[in-house]
Design a protein that fits this description.
Number of strands: 14
Distance between the termini: 38 Å
Family: Belongs to the carbohydrate kinase PfkB family.
Pfam families: PfkB
Strand content: 15-25%
Number of domains: 1
Organism: Centipeda periodontii DSM 2778
CATH architecture: 3-Layer(aba) Sandwich
CATH class: Alpha Beta
Order of helices and strands: EEEHEHEEEHEHHEHEHHEEEHHHE
Radius of gyration: 18 Å
GO molecular function: 2-dehydro-3-deoxygluconokinase activity; ATP binding
Keywords: ATP-binding, Kinase, Nucleotide-binding, Transferase
Strand order of the largest sheet: 5-4-1-8-9-10-11-12-13-14
Low-confidence stretches: none
Number of helices: 11
Length: 316
């Protein structure tokens, strides 16, 4: 069985070829997107075995996603849905700041994931279950499936990592988002919030306060993303800030947090010291912002080592 199980909604993404509002763009490039699928691809490129669980429509987009996952040599646990479509999104091109993203995912195939789907996922030999807050935002059945999959992992002593990955427009209310995401985080061993997410979820953007909040709710390790500044780690080894690794050129910030998760999860699997885990996470995030795709910049082990050697990093 795989080292890591991931669960969520992969989507086809159409990225604008030129800058400007989405309604004025004429040409797009088709790519694969999705926070959890980005992490799956990143872990596989670092040599870890990965299984990705999802639900796809029986349509050209579903076929495209399945082929892309197979090309990345990711094992799949796919339920096929003949009645609902595969989700997709549009993303514009920007020279600075975050791009505009418009989703077509309401009532998608993945939004119909259920507890029955996750009960069918084999967990023997799995070391990590990585979850985000996105599936829980898609529908009530997805929310129940998220809880059940984490419960199954905890019953088997599998390490649960959780990235809030807030998508406010997908939730029925801000209150439901905060309550559910914090509850899911309380069930995880490793929590990966950003400072902006901390402001929303617990009322502070201070990394130490965010980390203390989730440690107080049961997390063994909390890694708070601070963007280019780096990250703050609160673990049984103590608390520390690890400096960021500046990117040569920022092209698109989407996917940086997923790259960070790749670094933390792979570092945990390889028993790296905390400082090295975070340095790796910072480096992968730095690499990812230099490309327009959400995942095509994710490095191999050799590319990652060369980047760290060239760009530097380290604990403070």
């Amino acid at each position: 069985m795989s080292d890591v199980i991931l669960f969520g909604e992969p989507m086809v993404m159409f990225v604008a070829e030129t800058e400007g509002p989405l309604d004025e763009v004429e040409n797009f490039t088709k790519l694969l997107a999705g926070a959890d699928v980005n992490v799956a691809i990143g872990l596989k490129r670092l040599g870890h075995s990965v299984t990705y669980a999802t639900r796809l429509g029986r349509d050209p987009f579903g076929t495209y996603i399945e082929k892309k996952l197979r090309k990345e040599q990711i094992h799949t646990q796919i339920t096929y849905d003949a009645e609902h479509f595969t989700g997709y999104q549009l993303k514009n091109k920007v020279s600075e700041g975050d791009p505009e993203v418009f989703y077509f995912r309401r009532n998608s195939a993945a939004s119909h994931l259920s507890e029955a789907d996750v009960e069918a996922i084999p967990l023997d030999g799995v070391r990590v279950l990585h979850m985000t807050g996105i599936p829980a935002a898609l529908s009530g059945s997805c929310r129940n499936a998220s809880y059940r999959l984490i419960e199954r992992a905890r019953e088997r002593g599998i390490c649960v990592t959780f990235d809030p990955n807030l998508r406010p427009t997908l939730w029925e209310s801000r209150h439901a988002m905060i309550r559910t995401v914090n509850h899911l985080a309380s069930m995880a061993d490793i929590v990966l919030p950003g400072t902006a997410e901390g402001e929303i979820l617990m009322g502070s953007s201070d990394p130490a306060e965010i980390a203390a909040f989730y440690r107080g709710r049961g997390a063994r390790m909390v890694f708070v993303k601070e963007g280019p500044k780096g990250a703050y780690a609160d673990t049984p080894e103590g608390c520390t800030h690890i400096a960021g690794i500046p990117a040569e050129q920022v092209v698109d910030t989407v996917g940086a947090g997923d790259g960070f998760a790749v670094g933390i999860i792979s570092g945990w699997l390889e028993h790296l010291p905390v400082a090295q885990m975070v340095e790796r996470a910072n480096a992968i995030g730095s690499i990812q912002v230099t490309v327009k795709s959400d995942n095509e910049g994710l490095p191999t082990r050799e590319e990652l080592a060369a980047y760290i050697a060239k760009r530097g990093g380290g604990a403070q």
